[in-house]
Design goal:
The protein has 402 residues and is an alpha+beta fold. It has 2 domains: 3-192 and 385-389, Ribosomal Protein S5, domain 2, CATH 3.30.230; 197-376, GHMP kinase, C-terminal domain (Alpha-Beta Plaits, 2-Layer Sandwich), CATH 3.30.70. It has helices spanning 3-6, 79-97, 105-109, 128-143, 151-155, 213-223, 225-247, 251-271, 281-297, 321-331, 338-341, 354-360; strands spanning 10-17, 19-23, 28-30, 35-36, 40-44, 51-59, 66-69, 72-74, 111-118, 169-173, 184-189, 197-204, 302-306, 312-317, 342-344, 369-376, 382-383. The longest helix has 23 residues, at 225-247. The protein is globular. 46% of the residues are buried. Bound molecules: ligand 2P0. Ligand 2P0 is lined by residues 21, 24-26, 34, 40, 127, 129, 158-160, 213-214, 307-308.
Length: 402
């Protein structure tokens, strides 16, 4: 590419986090705008362990919008991708017309090259669409000089993505309007609010998600009376209780609400016709382990939650992490050594008492869990300044490593 064209490439790189819902979103009242049937609340996971990175370049020399995901070119005409691109360009045009930014019309008509990677394997079963669309919208907004509320646009990429636009503890208020303008995410508490809280992702071995969330929740809305009852009569109260538990850093209340809401979500899946099963025998063993552990100490020390897959996400206070991790290793013995089994924040090794093992009284399930990601609550999307970390080269095409 000639030198003069090279200069005209405008490039921005950002990262965005994964979130895990503790009050679950399941079901839409409007498929196109992605408007939910109930509000939800999530915890943003730390990007040191789990994140999406996205580089977006614009240039007069680009012929068409293009996107590369995890090293492979994907279809840019995907309707949800198009919604996000259209909405950001619309806001940029509005800001320019209002005289708020000095973007010329040529820059607005420039095509984009988008390159995105996750630092975690898809096999980890974590909602990569949430981090992915949050990162896309956040980065596009920087490229086109758009500021302010962006969660409503991220929501149109994937519902849960709106919650990844903030760090800490985040609620997605369902809203009442038909146009979705009031269906937005809002931070409930920052990432520094509850420093003792730790999160463990227990990655179950070699199981694939049987039914995708988007079609699963459609069938649930059509067939499950329990889901309707949950949306109408349960979630509003639970949202208020959860926000209070977070604000007061009341682990017992937070943990019990989290487990009950996960269980109710999976109950609505079972109430769907034909039923949807996301939990596996490994998930059930994790549930037993947590309840037996809590019963042994006569205190709620650990909570689990499961999304549309078999992997458990565990909430626990820092001081209890070493013992609980040791128990997981004991009841899910693996071939890998401890270093490979625990990724992310380091966990001290402790020895387990025979009393405790006997009190739990489960039959060990070998190779049920392939590894644990140890992490904590983290911040929202960030801009990456270091250009050596950009995923697109100076020609606007993916670097070999991307
Ligand atoms: C959640 N899940 O609140 C719930 C709990 C899975 C179980 O949000 O169709 O990928 O893109 O809006 O956001 C997964 O659903 O679905 C999800 P779309 P999404 O995190």
């Amino acid at each position: 590419m000639p030198e003069n064209n090279k200069e005209k490439i405008n490039m921005v790189t950002c990262t965005a986090p994964v979130n895990i819902a503790v009050i679950k979103y399941w079901g839409k009242r409007n498929e196109e705008l992605i408007l939910p049937i109930n509000s939800s609340l999530s915890v943003t996971l730390h990007q040191d362990q789990l994140k999406t990175t996205t580089t977006i370049a614009t240039s007069r020399s680009f012929q068409e919008d293009r996107i590369w995901l995890n090293g492979k070119e994907e279809d840019i005409t995907h309707p949800r991708l198009q919604s996000c691109l259209r909405e950001i360009r619309r806001l940029a045009r509005k800001r320019r017309n209002d005289g708020e930014i000095g973007l010329d019309s040529a820059s607005l008509s420039h095509k984009v090259h988008i390159c995105s990677v996750n630092n975690f394997p898809t096999a980890a079963g974590l909602a990569s669409s949430a981090a992915g669309f949050a990162c896309l919208v956040y980065t596009l907004a920087r490229v086109f000089g758009v500021e302010g509320e962006l969660s409503g646009i991220a929501r149109q990429g994937s519902g849960s993505a709106c919650r990844s636009m903030y760090g800490g503890f985040v609620q997605w208020i369902m809203g009442k309007k038909d146009d979705g303008k009031d269906s937005l995410a809002q931070q409930v508490a920052t990432e520094t609010h509850w420093p003792e809280l730790r999160i463990l992702v227990l990655v179950a071995s070699a199981e694939r998600k049987p039914i995708g969330s988007t079609s699963g929740m459609q069938t649930s809305v059509q067939t499950s009376c329990l889901l309707q009852h949950r949306a109408e009569s349960i979630v509003t109260g639970r949202m208020a209780d959860m926000i209070e538990a977070v604000r007061k850093r009341d682990f017992t209340a937070f943990a019990e609400l989290t487990m009950k809401d996960s269980n109710q979500f999976h109950a609505t899946c079972l109430d769907t016709y034909p039923p949807i099963f996301y939990l596996s025998s490994v998930s059930q063993q994790v549930i037993s382990l947590v309840h037996r552990y809590n019963r042994h100490y006569e205190e709620t020390r650990v909570a689990y939650t499961f999304d549309a897959g078999p992997n458990a996400v565990i909430f626990i206070l820092q001081q209890h992490v070493p013992e609980f991790v040791q128990l997981v290793q004991h009841f899910f013995p693996s071939d890998t050594n401890r270093g490979q089994f625990i990724k992310g924040l380091p966990v001290n090794s402790v020895s387990l008492s025979e009393d405790l093992k006997q009190a739990i009284g489960l039959e060990p399930m070998s190779k049920g869990i392939s590894y644990i990601i140890s992490t904590k609550v983290g911040p929202g999307p960030c801009v990456v300044e270091d250009s050596t970390l950009y995923l697109l080269g100076s020609d606007g095409f993916p670097k070999k490593t991307a």
